[in-house]
Amino acid sequence: MAEAVSLSISDNIAVVTIDSPPVNAMAQNVRAGLKQAFTDLKGRKDVKAVVIGCKGRTFVAGADIGEFDTGIAAPGYHEVLGLIEDCAFPVVAAVHGTALGGGMEITLASHYRVAHEAARFGLPELTLGIIPGAGGTQRLPRLIPLEAAIDLMLSSKPMPAAKAQELGLVDAVVTGDIIEGGIAFARELAARGAAPRRTRDQAVRGAENAAELFAAKRAQVAKTMRNRQSPLALLDAVEGAVKLPFDEGLKAESAISDKLVPATEARALRHLFFADREVRRIPGLAANVKARPVTRVGIVGAGTMGGGISMCYANAGVPVTLLDAKQEALDRGMATIRKNYERSVSRGSLKQEQLEQRMQLITPTLDYAALGSADLVIEAVFENMALKKEIFAKLDKVVRKGAIIGTNTSTLDIDEIAAVTGRPEDVVGLHFFSPANVMQLLEIVHAKRTSPDVLVTALETAKQIKKTGVVAKVCYGFIGNRMMDPYAREAEHCLLEGATPEQVDGALQNFGMAMGILAVFDMAGVDIGYLTRLERKHLLPDDPSFYRPDTMLNERGWLGQKAGRGYYRYDSARKRTPDPEVIELLWEEGKRLGIERRQPGEQEILERCLYSMINEGARLLEEGIALRASDIDVVYTSGYGFPRYRGGPMFYADSVGLKKIYDRILEFRSTLDPQYWTPAPLLEKLALAGSSFAAWQAGRKN
Ligand code: CAA
């Protein structure tokens, strides 16, 4: 028997134990082990019931995701789950941790389910662009009501044991050792001579108004999960459970699943599953480099950013000392933090007592000496080099030896900031995104002198506050904002050529961006980019049309939502409508600048925004600012609203084909301003060789 699965029998109860770290994924060896165990159990006279349980931190967390790209080796899922369901003795799944995907499907093919009180059950396949393909769409609605089953699968969110019991999925919830709990339950079944209770023999629950239900869910999906094929395919599969006999439903599910697995959507989401985890690996870093502990944090600056970062740490239970130069700013900052937490309480996502606990973890101060005991101090003040240097010099005096000093700068040279301290090796960039307590991304900036253990600590602290930390080297804008620069430049230029803000944002949103870039600028404040450009005026291209719309809005004080108008107009509820005055103003300006009125269409807008960004991404790779193409994809999907189902800009580029992008860039070079349309050497090299960013990345690993 494969060693990932073992079988033991004691007092007429068989225990099948899966032990395949780290998460007991249902890889080929696990499937083979289960097949062997259930084959061995056939015809046993000394067995009255069977328990399936797992060693380690969790029950089976699903299929082995990597196997979808290499092909599923025998034995297949259906064969193994069929053996479990066919078993002549009652089979009890004993679940701790998370039973996800194929793991959940093992529990559905079992006859009974016992859960540890902290266990969770989910079918998150849509997050991978596929559907539960091992009977989940057919068995789940036979165990819990149809609508609840659909919602569980559409949401991809695992449900807690108590909820699973309430819905009828779980037969018993236990505390203490889960295998012992499973065995005790199996003994009771054996004692009362209980027979197997096969899910496939049960009727779908709550299917009386199935036609209306499916129509409503399809309408919901069309609205909320645009551009995606797997959610509608999921509904088709579940409808099969209602309309077809079990075996035929299972076949229909397989046929749908087989089509989805190799499709771009699923490949993109698998790519991100691994990319999100790959970011933690830093090439060249010795394995024995350990993170420094972070148990107390200091934050300098009680504005929006500093407040948001304080919340991140308080949410993780870490005490924070929040410093500002003025009492008034401190009071305002603390009041904003409380208000944010109160909003969570009123929404029901936080309890009042948790609010109080978190507020107590944040201590306001005006005194730098109060930061003396912190393990990590993060500076989050206004983006100004002189001010940051002044603060770092002060921190250098008070912060204890061995503590880390981070800066939340989004544009400034961290090497220059670090140089004012006597310990540049302890300085690192920690670039949070606003609102810091909500946004997933943390860009970790590896300055020239940052020491390896500081880098590792930065990655660990990202995890501590449940963020995705991505390492970048120092350059203007790091990964995210540097690539945003050409993207937004093209978006704005299209306005001077006769497109409206709605057309530009519409093209980006139809592609799947969470928001159009012009609406983003209105939300963040049109002055933000303008002010950073003013600081770097001497470095900008000699081009009067460069970000001209932004400049014009700034000159008029039309700074976006906060001013009631920017690229759009806003009412008191911040609902936006087109602003004919702005549209006319920008078209007139285009004319004045001698720009041809070409009214770019949706496809062109998209290509200009995305291809210029991808080209810049290729430069970041060449320069070593980003470690991997997949890191760029993580930055964009976790911090910039790039649709996950397209895999991030570099994966998207590969899926379009680099040669096609390269050729289009050459076309733009001849029809638009050539200074912006030189293909990056790496893009050119890969495109002409018929290669891809993925192949380039894989080649560097070897
Ligand atoms: N397949 C392959 N590898 C997996 C995996 C899976 N299903 N789940 C986790 N891993 C790997 C991760 O890549 C990671 O590897 P590295 O340490 O080498 O980076 C390691 O296991 C630990 O994972 P996490 O860092 O994510 O650990 P965590 O404790 O933070 O989270 C978890 C654990 C909740 C199980 C999380 O890993 C997770 O959500 N996994 C995916 C679950 C999933 O989507 N399952 C459905 C699969 S599709 C399916 O099952 C289809 C079907 O119908 C048969």
Care to describe what's here?
Helices cover 49% and strands 12% of the residues. It is an alpha/beta fold and 702 residues long. The strands form four sheets. The protein has an eight-stranded mixed sheet with strand order 12-11-10-13-14-15-16-17, sandwiched between helices. Strands 1-2-3-4-6-9 form a six-stranded mixed sheet, sandwiched between helices. The protein has a three-stranded mixed sheet with strand order 5-7-8. Helix 9 packs antiparallel against helix 10 (230-243) and helix 10 runs antiparallel to helix 11. The two termini are 34 Å apart.
List the uncertain runs: none
Please report the total strand number as a whole number: 19
Q: Average pLDDT, to the nearest integer?
A: 96
CA(first)-CA(last) distance: 34 Å
From the spread of the alpha carbons, the general shape counts as: globular
Which class best fits the helix and strand makeup? alpha/beta
Give the proportion of residues in helices. Answer: 40-55%
Bound molecules: acetoacetyl-coenzyme A
Number of helices: 30
How can the largest sheet be summarized?
Answer: 8 strands, mixed
